[in-house]
Amino acid sequence: MSLNQLIQNCKKNDAQAQSELYQLFSGKLFSICLKYSRNYAEAEDNLQDAFVTIFNKISQFNNKGSFEGWLKRITINTALQCYRNKGVFEIVNEEKIEDITLEIEDDELSIDYLLKIIQELPDRYRLVFNLYALDGYSHKEIASMLKISTGTSKSNLARARQILKDKIETYRASLNAQTL
């Protein structure tokens, strides 16, 4: 069955089509949920909530643009919504912070380790870092999505990078100490 036919059947609340759509996209969408969640269980909850929204709003998809992009936007917004409701983005001092560069050598750090340290970031920093560095949103777009100022977005990104840089340097130092 083609993707277009699958979408049409989902618009008719066809349970078999919904199951197929879930099987087709749940892996990719779960990886997005993991990026925006504190842990695996929260990511599972966000994926569940995202699919509920997807099936409730699928009639609004009008075949303009990428269906996968539409799914991704819903998934990211679902994950962000719980943080918006918790007041995670209270106003912080937005003094100018120097731009931090992260240097990551592929053979040194595992994806699992990187995901772990990103998930350990405080919510406001993790969400801005993921939106900017991993999903390519601009600070203006992030500010709109999270209902914060662009300055807060930039400040949170800089703080996230600094925390990640410190954790990576500590990790590298521990590796170097083990090899001595």
UniProtKB/TrEMBL annotation:
InterPro entries this protein is in? RNA_pol_sigma-70-like, RNA_pol_sigma-70_dom, RNA_pol_sigma70_r2, RNA_pol_sigma70_r4_t2, RNA_pol_sigma_r2, RNA_pol_sigma_r3/r4-like, WH-like_DNA-bd_sf
Could you tell me which residue ranges the RNA polymerase sigma factor 70 region 4 type domain spans?
112-162
Record's keyword terms, sorted: Sigma factor, Transcription, Transcription regulation
**Do you know which Pfam families this protein is assigned to?**
Sigma70_r2, Sigma70_r4_2
Query: Among its keywords, does the record have Transcription?
Result: yes
The keyword Ribonucleoprotein belongs to this UniProt entry's keyword annotation: no
Q: Where is the RNA polymerase sigma-70 region domain?
A: 21-86
Q: Family per UniProt?
A: Belongs to the sigma-70 factor family. ECF subfamily.
Q: Which PANTHER family match?
A: RNA POLYMERASE ECF-TYPE SIGMA FACTO, RNA POLYMERASE SIGMA-70 FACTOR ECF SUBFAMILY
Task: Specify the protein name.
Answer: RNA polymerase sigma factor
